[in-house]
Write a structure and sequence with these properties.
This protein is of the alpha/beta class and 310 residues long. It contains 12 helices and 13 strands. The strands form 2 sheets. A 9-stranded mixed sheet has the order 5-4-1-8-9-10-11-12-13, with helices on both faces. A 4-stranded mixed sheet has the order 3-2-6-7. Strand 6 and strand 7 form a beta hairpin.
Length: 310
């Protein structure tokens, strides 16, 4: 039983999504096609992904003392996620997402209560961290909270996964406690910008990060799949051939499924194959958590990858 063996520490937001043909140019007003709201936040999305696949993860985060926060918490629980949330006096976080006709998304985040999650809040959950197999982190909460969570989890013997989004410069003390770094290509370039010349390839940038202490890097490359690089090995993993509708939750679906695979005893390569397939499935419908397939739906969608589910 995997209940609470996966802990996700991160953000929860209400997503405000505008579908439009393209982004407006500076000073231009254009007509949108649709407006909708969806539960989101990278941390909550990743927890929901693991929950939908049957992993029963524990989500640690912060919400506002408002109806939005209550609805988001209830929705996570409905998706198979256990929650232990700090209730802040401020407002629950929001994300404002423009989805263009090519399926790409452009996101602005208002952190709200997410910014109140402190290292002390995480230290109060030390017992839970010590029982976890995998701890999954992102960068939509205060960096000092991410650093402290990674330290406590690594000391407890958990595998620490970090999705470095939104990308920023990361301290060595954090990188040394990360077992798997999960950037996309743009984030990788931002994390390793000081390469000689402008034509450094992904593998060179990954090796640069490994010299700083990161053990393994799992690079997500959209329709090109993923690249898993450890100290002595590398594997290229193909994505499923799908027609993209909305890429908003692709990376989060990938991270949640990869965490589930590791916690369930899969090899890193097989866990990455599971994550890649689940991320591919997520781009075939709109929204963040609303695009995440249940375990049964995913098995029907991708039978071969579904056989990897723990």
């Amino acid at each position: 039983m995997l209940e609470n063996k996966i802990i996700v520490v991160g953000s929860m937001n209400m997503d405000h999504v505008i579908n439009c043909q393209r982004l407006p140019r500076p000073g231009e007003t254009i007509a949108g096609q649709k407006f909708s709201t969806h539960p989101g936040g990278k941390g909550a999305n990743q927890a929901a992904a693991a929950g939908q696949l049957g992993g029963k993860p524990l989500f640690l985060g912060a919400r506002g003392n408002d109806d939005t926060g209550s609805k988001l918490q209830e929705h996570l629980q409905d998706m198979g996620v256990n929650t232990e949330l700090k209730v802040s006096a401020g407002k629950t976080g929001t994300a404002h997402i423009f989805v263009t006709d090519d399926g790409e998304n452009h996101i602005v985040i208002i952190a709200g209560a997410n910014d109140t999650l402190s290292p002390e809040d995480i230290r109060d959950k030390k017992d839970s961290l010590e029982r976890a197999e995998v701890v999954l982190l992102q960068l939509e909460i205060p960096l000092e909270t991410v650093v402290e969570t990674a330290r406590l989890a690594a000391e407890a013997g958990s595998k620490v996964l970090l999705d470095p989004a939104p990308a920023r410069e990361l301290p060595i003390e954090l990188l040394e406690n990360v077992h798997y770094l999960l950037p996309n290509s743009q984030e990788l370039s931002q994390l390793a910008p000081d390469m000689e010349g402008e034509d450094a390839d992904d593998l060179e940038r990954i090796r640069h990060l490994q010299k700083q202490g990161v053990r393994n890097v799992l690079l997500t490359r959209g329709e090109e799949g993923a690249l898993l690089v450890s100290k002595n090995e590398k594997y290229e993993i193909e994505a499923l051939d799908v027609e993209p509708v909305d890429t908003t939750a692709a990376g989060d679906a990938f991270a949640g499924a990869f965490a589930l695979g590791l916690a369930g005893g899969l090899s890193p390569r097989n866990a990455a194959e599971l994550g890649t397939a689940y991320g591919s499935a997520a781009v075939t419908s709109a929204g963040a958590q609303s695009s995440l397939l249940t375990r049964k739906e995913f098995i029907r969608f991708a039978p071969q990858a579904g056989r990897l589910l723990p």
